[in-house]
Automatic annotation (TrEMBL), chains A, B:
Pfam families xref list: TetR_C_7 (PF14246), TetR_N (PF00440)
SUPFAM superfamilies, A to Z: Homeodomain-like
Xref: InterPro entries: Homeodomain-like_sf (IPR009057), HTH-type_TetR-like_transc_reg (IPR050109), HTH_TetR (IPR001647), TetR_C_Proteobacteria (IPR039536)
Stated name of the protein: Bacterial regulatory proteins, tetR family
GO molecular function per UniProt: DNA-binding transcription factor activity; transcription cis-regulatory region binding
Annotated DNA-binding residue span(s): 35-54
Amino acid sequence: MALAIKVSEETFTPRQQAVLTAALDLLVENGDGLTMTAVARRASCSKETLYKWFGDRDGLLTATVQWQAAKVRMPYVDRSHLNTKALRASLEQFARDLLTTLIGEVSITLNRTAITHAAQEKDSLGNIVLENGPMAVRRRLKPILEAARDARLLRFSSSEEAYRTFFGLVVRDVQIRLLLGDNGLTQSNVESNIEADVKIATDQFLALYGAKANT
Amino acid sequence: MALAIKVSEETFTPRQQAVLTAALDLLVENGDGLTMTAVARRASCSKETLYKWFGDRDGLLTATVQWQAAKVRMPYVDRSHLNTKALRASLEQFARDLLTTLIGEVSITLNRTAITHAAQEKDSLGNIVLENGPMAVRRRLKPILEAARDARLLRFSSSEEAYRTFFGLVVRDVQIRLLLGDNGLTQSNVESNIEADVKIATDQFLALYGAKANT
DNA sequence: CTGGAACCGTACCGTACGGTACGCCTCTGC
DNA sequence: GCAGAGGCGTACCGTACGGTACGGTTCCAG
């Protein structure tokens, strides 16, 4: 029931991190067809060491995902002096970071791996990705939204609803299309439109929830 | 390059459809851990027959996904006499069908399977799912939106942007969370909120794109 | 009745891969 | 120098699964 996400940094040694890097590279290259032998060869270590350090294949996968996912960082926002302009800038920053992250190959690989795992009744990877992806965004964004509401810059009854609207306006169908391997949606293709999309999403969000809706 | 989605119904015989049903059931139960032996046993047929009919494991998977995905139907909407009320009803119907479909176990399974495949440089399944999911919605929704714009009910410069906004407002983070196996998001849990979410999404979309924005 | 096509069930083969065992090297503390 | 720990490389084992082969049964055409 409890997510049991590791809070301590789990402190991997540099050597272990090199192994995890190799695993991630192979994951990005070959998808979930990751073999222990391949990781051992790529990282120049023995399989025995892999099993000693990570227990089994799932442990290695979990460590890799966990270690990478934890690298995702949401922007810090100064909540002390919020005004219309600062709020807009913060929202745009959130949207930009969110989009930039989730169109990256690493994010796509991690999400695909976790989804593949979720298809086998194992939800641990999915929980890790969720916790470091959508939930991290939510944890960071909600206080901002609520602060902005207290400052009469935003108007909403449920901050949960407001967060989900923001998420939807920013992500749209981009992530699912990338996960499914949409040919017409190359990374560079999306990347070049990020700024425009960020602005559109922010404008729309402010139009819906901004206190001065009729400005 | 071309998607080469099969247009003809491919006309599977009833016996073949029974096999595909068995395959889908196993897919839903066991995830992508689908084995030819299991399908043969479940469908009471021989493996030789499976290979004869579908070529190989991928062929069976493709046939299953194709056959199921084609069953998804978007609502028909009467474009002839659009008014504010009819437009709202149409949008709500789209939102309801979209949400209902993609929280279903079949949809989740199909998407997971296609994503797992996309992680192995095979985009055929992904294309099938895309074509029968998001792209089908787009094909159906865009003409409505444009008709509504012609009738001065909606205001937008790009129908593509309007469609993507609608998609985002409706789907939000629901699909990705379900795909990742979010524990806090059971199907029934979401299902009970569909009507409320549909209304919210439609209201928001009309607030953004409705011609009478200040009503 | 007979030949053959379609298909079921099962046995079988080859391989890929997770996991283990072991020999050898290197580095460190005493 | 020496013992032991940590780790590399490789060989090995067991199994699961994709794919094939084959004997037996049913059904239909002529």
